[in-house]
Amino acid sequence: MFCCQGCVDLFITDPGKYLQETKDMIVCPTCLAEKPLDRSAGLSWNGQDVRFCRCPFCSEEFQKKPQYYIDRYEGKIPVESVLSHC
After folding, report:
1. 3 Rama class: left (phi>0) / alpha (psi -120 to 50) / beta
2. pLDDT string in tens for the chain (86-residue length)
3. CA-CA distance, 68 to 51, in Å (whole number)?
4. For residue 49, which of 18, 24, 35, 61 sits 20 to 30 Å off, Cα-Cα?
């Protein structure tokens, strides 16, 4: 998942570099914050481990509408961004 086309273009220039930089990162499906894996919290949903930032609000909100957050995370639902170009 990329936040904008500019990030896609940057990634394409050197995918190995950016994959290495992000290999131990997670994106919280609720708030979309990036966190190091070792500073995240997990929850089992439909047999899969879902990782969150450590904010209790995010896991609570996820549990209210899990399919919505999974669909949004997978790009099936548009993400409203704070960046005007996204």
Report:
1. alpha
2. 676 788 889 999 999 998 998 889 999 999 888 899 999 999 999 998 999 998 889 999 999 999 999 998 888 887 765 544 44
3. 16
4. 18
- By CB atoms closer than 10 A (0-12, 13-18, 19+), residue 26 is buried
Question: Rounded to two decimals, what is the model's pTM?
Answer: 0.73
- Is 31 exposed, middle or buried, given 0-12, 13-18 or 19+ CB atoms closer than 10 A? middle
Q: Is 8 inside any structural domain?
A: no
Range of the domain at 53: 24-78
In a domain, 36, yes or no: yes
Residue 5 covered by a domain: no
Q: How many CA atoms lie within 13 A of 18 on its CB side?
A: 11
